[in-house]
Amino acid sequence: MSSRILPDFDLLLPQSIPDAVELLSAHRDRITVMAGGTDVMVAMKFAQSPAQLPDYVMSLENVPGLAYVLFDPERGLRIGAKATVADLLAQSEVKRHYRALWHAAQTFATGQVRNTATVLGNLLRASPAGDCSCAIYAIGGVVVLHGTSGRREVDIDDFWLSYGVTARRPDELAVELILPLPAAGSRSAFKRMTRTSEDLAKLNVAVRLEMSGNTCVDARLAMGCVAPTPLRLTRTEALLKGRELTAEVLQRVAASVPWEISPIDDKRSTAEYRKQVSGVLLKRAIQEACGAA
Amino acid sequence: MSEQAIVGTNAPRVDVRDKVTGQAQYAADVRLPGMLYGKVVRCWEHAHARVKRLDLSAAAASPGVVRVLGPKDVTPKRYNSSVLDLMVSESMHDMLGDIDDQPIFTEHVKFQGDAICGIIARSEEAAERAAAKVVVEYEPLPVYLTAEAAKAPGAVQFTPEKPGNRAFQLPEAMFPNNALGGGDVEAAMREADIVVEDAFYVPKQKQCQMEPHAYVAKVDSGGRLTCWTSSQMPKLVQRKLAKLFDLPMNLVKIVPTVIGGGFGTRLGMISEPQACAMALAVPGHPVKLQTLREEDWVISPSRHPGKYWMRIGFKRDGSPLACDARFENYKGGYYLDASGTAFTAGAWLGGMYRFPALRYRGESYFTNQGLTGAYRGYGNPQTNFVLEQLIDRACAGLGADPVEWRKKWHKGVGDDGWCPGVTYPSCALDECLDRGAAAIGWTEKRRKYARQTGTLRRGVGVAVMNHTSGAMPMLLEHTACTVKLNEDATAEILFACSDMGQGSHTALKQIAAETLGFPFEHVQLSGGTSDVAGFDIGAHASRTIYVGGAAVKKACEEVRRQLCERASLQLGVPAEQLDIRDKRIFVQADPARGIDAEAITRAGVYHFVDPATGEPGGVPGQIQGYVSFFAPHNSPPFGASFAEVEVDTETGEVRVLELVNAHDIGRAINPAAVEGQLEGGIQQGLGFVLSEEICYDADGRVQNNSFTDYKMFGPEDMPKITTILVEDADPIGPFGAKSVGESGLVSPVGAVANAIFHAIGIQFTEAPITPEKVLKGIRETGVRDYGSIGGGR
Q1: Under an 8 A CB cutoff, do B128 and A5 touch?
Q2: Which residue, B455, B255, B411, B213, is CA-closest to B320?
Q3: pLDDT number for residue A45
Q4: CA-to-CA distance for B537 and B472, rounded, in angstroms?
Q5: How far apart are CA B553 and CA B567, in angstroms?
Q6: Are the C-beta atoms of residues B142 and B46 closer than 8 Å to each other?
Q7: Does pLDDT of B792 surpass 60?
Q8: ipTM exceeding the 0.90 mark
Q9: Is B742 annotated as catalytic?
Q10: CATH number of A187-289
Q11: What's domain A10-59's architecture?
């Protein structure tokens, strides 16, 4: 059972990124980082045992300058650790250049949660169902981490290690996410299936295609809720690369997806159903990216 | 009476301003000096177990703890948290077999969340910390989640009073062969040209009211127990608590708090017994007891799920011959409401069509699921899902139009309603069907969607329903109402039936103002505490306007009679020739002649002697009207729903595009409120048929006890809604009104299922009809044009 009362913890309020890193380094596994708090607070209320509870909650509230969503026409998009999903939606270039992410953000949770939850928090939660995570995986990018031994970048392809676990080291603070500038001819789309509109995904998919006419030069396909982490569909990507997107190719692509995923039965759907519709959803995302749907 | 000025208007809701500004006081908002905080320790790890050892010592020693209460520290008496047993005579009670089987704290856990012990502490935090220190050792027992499992030989018995774990079956003494209906079903079936038959499953649905259950209880120095609760039935809870704690009713006071949504979940008691047991342990100190959402989820009753089998026979010309049905529902761990739904599901079935022969058998079995009881519709959506799909299957086989078939064979004026011998006094279902069909474009769309190609397939479906306005003659229908006039000719009405947020108190005020001839703003209506208000059985069975409104009207008519009689003395005109409007009593034939009501009410209260004449002025005495009203009938409402859906044949997803609810409500006292009821009903009906179901794991633990995983339709999921109020005044209801509180939920269920059938030619026997089930159905049988179907699946 959950609790009406938050368990005891010490609230830490660093004033800068180095402050935050120092605190992380000092408390390591006993500390949790909070930006929007939409996951942290729920997890604390529903913790099954004291072992799951942090002794320290470090809020980024007073760390200045992390709430940005900045688009640079030459370098791409930078999303700060405190930028909310609503902040992302408010940046007009996102819809134009990162359609998949914009769409994921737009359908993400509810209005109240979008106003509070951060984009980076969605990545750091490392849930296979994260909508923004799925879109970002397809788009590609790097997570910038600051730790006691300095700054490093982790490619999103290497970021999620297992359910709930990321490449972030205990002494590191995820400071920002950088998405590359899409190449000319690049397009993306995001689709998800839910039980009702306001829900976690039972299946989500995002695609980024580099097109030359009707030929797919390169493709990144990401799918959620079908493995312990968001999943790249690399074998299916190979079926697209260099191919003209004919109905036959799309059919082959759709048929390939169930072989690449390993979904489970859970509260939101069944493994069987997810396998059955995974190809359909991917096909529709590709069609949408190409403007055909 | 002259033409109505207030009844039939959208008078502003009396409760809304407080609610939207946060001023409404719910039980959780009650704060009293010296208040302590209770916490019920529940068994969360098992759904069926015996308590082998309970050690409260560490909890008792925890900081801030005032008392800990185990099963032996409270009354050993058991209770039945439902109130149905108080609404029937003692002989009926015995015949139905109602029992009291719920302990305050248990040693035999019968469902996940059963109460083990209680903590009383100086703060909520202290109570919760102490609760974590309670040591309980359990002996797990086999878990039974279905009737089949619970009735198997050798199964652990839930109570010695109900052998075989059968909580209820229709009693032989009232229903020969334990079946509701009449005629020779077997013989009639043999004459049938077409028989449709299937076994269905109906889901367990949660009311999802916004306010989690909360209570404050206190025992004062005189030994009087007061309980603040948002129960839908405060007066019956007063009697229940008095009985449980062996107190005379005058020493039990109920303070009804604002209800944050009911939908049946507050029909009776939930944790009042635990809250009051705690208060009795610490006299002088109020104790507040609040529930978490996931606690509320299991301890408050949900809609009865179960297996529902039905078979219907027809002649080739479409005439129905016989209906045979059996609903075996899965109770939770305790008896409450076991008789109710098992009976009513069949009652609604019997009230719908003119089956020459009918046999309905209803049974309830204990299981280790969370509790089941009242939920808006009370057995009706279950029956609608089954009956209306089978009717459409038959129509497909017969080549009959589902609207025309229903118009021909539904029951109407003079036929028996849901209760044999109580006939329908009014019925405008044909008009509902006609206007609903026109609104959705029935004829054109039925034809158009009968042959389709492509991934997305559309369909339109219809379903009808009957319900009730109060539960007479099955249950007691009694409401007392007092109306008193202040000296300035404003009215104060005392009426114990709660407003659950449906707008009932607003509509009752309209009825009062209309009857009195007073402005709406000069009428006050209060629920009143149990020591002040008269008897009322509570807000259930869609009775508040039909029964309560009639009581208010009668009490106001009494006041009006007294006003006219006093005015008659002054005007020299017989009282029956007078009328009242805007608080002025005037001669009907000569409206210029009249007297202000205030002159009469003032003189009645301030009855001074005129020093000049030595004579008193006017008639002495404050005017009051009182009625102890018993409803003479149950004037059932009817409704027809039309749904248009789009089925994605590649994913199985169903989108509801439009839902038309056309209802025969007799007369709308407040049309906006009536439309609100029909719209809200649609939201819950769509959930029943498409998305909502409480699920358990094999050990009986709830899998979805939060809004994260229990999915109701939200604003974005809702279709275009059209509500049609068919106003054909009922000869009995106040101002012609029949009920509307529950009925809006019911027929959207069948209409959506039938629209899916029309779209893809497949019927689904298990609700909710999820995309997973639809896709499975499509993969098994393929999408079929409705136009190519003969004889159903």
Answers
A1: yes
A2: B411
A3: 86
A4: 12
A5: 20
A6: no
A7: no
A8: yes
A9: yes
A10: 3.30.390.50
A11: 2-Layer Sandwich (3.30)
